[in-house]
Amino acid sequence: MLEDELTSILANDDDIKQLVIVDSTEEQGLARKLRSQNRPFLIKNFENVSNLVTKHRRGTRSGEPSTKRRSILQQALRQRHVDDLVVVVHVLALELHTNGTLLKREVYRQIERLAAFSDGIFVLYGLCDALRTLGRDLNGGLCPLFFLTDDDGATVEDCIALALGGNQAYANVLTNDKDIVLFLTPMWAAYLQDQRANSTLMKHARFKKIAKIDTTLSYEPDFDANADTCARRFSLSPVLLRGDTSVIQTSYLRAKQGV
Fold it and tell me: Is there a contact between 81 and 56 (Cβ–Cβ < 8 Å)?
């Protein structure tokens, strides 16, 4: 769901010397957008990622017996020069959000896999009820974890709080306009294909509006059309809210500095 924001930071970071995306069905949208921005990257199976990054390691003795080595990628990252930043991106399935237990299990599992060869992991999830204790549960024995935090230092609630600029900005909107039934970022508008399950809620007499959040990113050109179609379907009035990318930009910089 943070595909656009991720495209923005990766496409504009010249410090990245090697960008690797773990091969999966979920990475296809991100890959398409990175190509549109002429951002070079490679797609590799998870098991092959460490082999790929060894080509970029510096100062590692190639003749060292493999049985005495730590994870190859971990060595590469820990011994790299400051100008040899390797970023590995692993996109998980959006459908995980439908089951909190499954979401928690899969996110924890993938973090543990990535931690075996990482100097740090930037977790692109908000609090999401299932993940509220993630930092406390995993930060002790693994590599450092970095989160999406707003200006107050609090982890953002979800992708809507992220798009609006933080938890307080989100709370202000909810307080000032109680007629909004649904908030749409460009990615939500693009992926929300079947809204029948939400029809009862969105047609409730109490709700009158659907919010379109302008994140200032333009990787989804059909955003307005998608949001307006949704609004017409449920007889809601679309309202435009100004968002920004400040939270993910500052959080990403903090993660980079932390490793």
Answer: no
